[in-house]
């Protein structure tokens, strides 16, 4: 990884500052981003991705990381709980429809139980 000076428009980390700034500004609560905050966020993001990758690599027990390894780490470690909707376990279409149908049946039974108490 090549280290560029801030004058060249990139953080000391490998992430482009312009992209990090765009993501930070996408929050409606953010009006201004100081250069120091931008540098700090860029470095923190790099460290987080490195940590997640390291955990997935440890879980994989091999030289390469697959999506399944990331999903396992995210879904089994409370630290990464906020990513569960972003990195879910993969399921087949058949499994999806089976799950959806069983949830629908549960909702139907629940609404039938509530309606039968009237009389």
Walk me through the structure.
InterPro entries: CBFA_NFYB_domain, Histone-fold, Transcr_DNA_Rep_Reg. With 119 residues, the protein is mainly α. The chain contains 4 helices and no strands. The protein is flat, with a radius of gyration of 22 Å. The model is unreliable at 1-6 (pLDDT under 50).
Mean pLDDT: 85
Roughly how much helix do the residues carry, as a percent range?
Answer: 55-70%
Q: Name the overall outline.
A: flat
Question: How much of the sequence is in beta strands?
Answer: under 5%
Counting DSSP E segments of at least 2 residues, the number of strands comes to 0
User: Largest sheet at a glance?
Assistant: none
Structural class label = mainly alpha
* Order of secondary-structure elements: HHHH
Unreliable stretches covering 5 or more consecutive residues: 1-6
C-alpha end-to-end distance: 73 Å
Discrete helix count: 4
The radius of gyration over CA amounts to 22 Å
GO molecular function, one term: protein heterodimerization activity
Region (Disordered): 100-119
Keywords: Acetylation, Coiled coil, DNA-binding, Nucleotidyltransferase, Nucleus, Phosphoprotein, Transferase
Main location: nucleus
Short description:
Keywords: Acetylation, Coiled coil, DNA-binding, Nucleotidyltransferase, Nucleus, Phosphoprotein, Transferase. The protein is mainly α and 119 residues long.
Secondary structure: elements and pairs:
Elements: H1 17-25, H2 35-60, H3 67-76, H4 93-115
Helix pairs in contact: 1-2, 2-3
Features:
119 residues, transferase, Chromatin accessibility complex protein 1, 57% helix, 4 helices, disordered N terminus, nucleus, mainly alpha
């Amino acid at each position: 990884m090549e280290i560029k000076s801030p004058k060249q428009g990139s953080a000391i980390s490998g992430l482009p500052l312009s992209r990090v700034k765009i993501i930070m500004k996408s929050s409606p609560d953010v009006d201004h981003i100081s250069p120091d905050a931008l540098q700090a966020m860029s470095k923190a993001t790099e460290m987080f991705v490195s940590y997640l990758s390291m955990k997935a690599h440890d879980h994989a027990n091999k030289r390469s990381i697959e999506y399944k390894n990331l999903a396992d780490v995210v879904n089994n470690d409370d630290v990464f709980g906020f990513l569960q909707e972003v990195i879910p376990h993969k399921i087949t279409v058949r499994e999806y429809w089976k799950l959806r149908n069983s949830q629908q049946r549960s909702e139907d039974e629940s609404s039938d139980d509530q309606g039968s108490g009237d009389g």
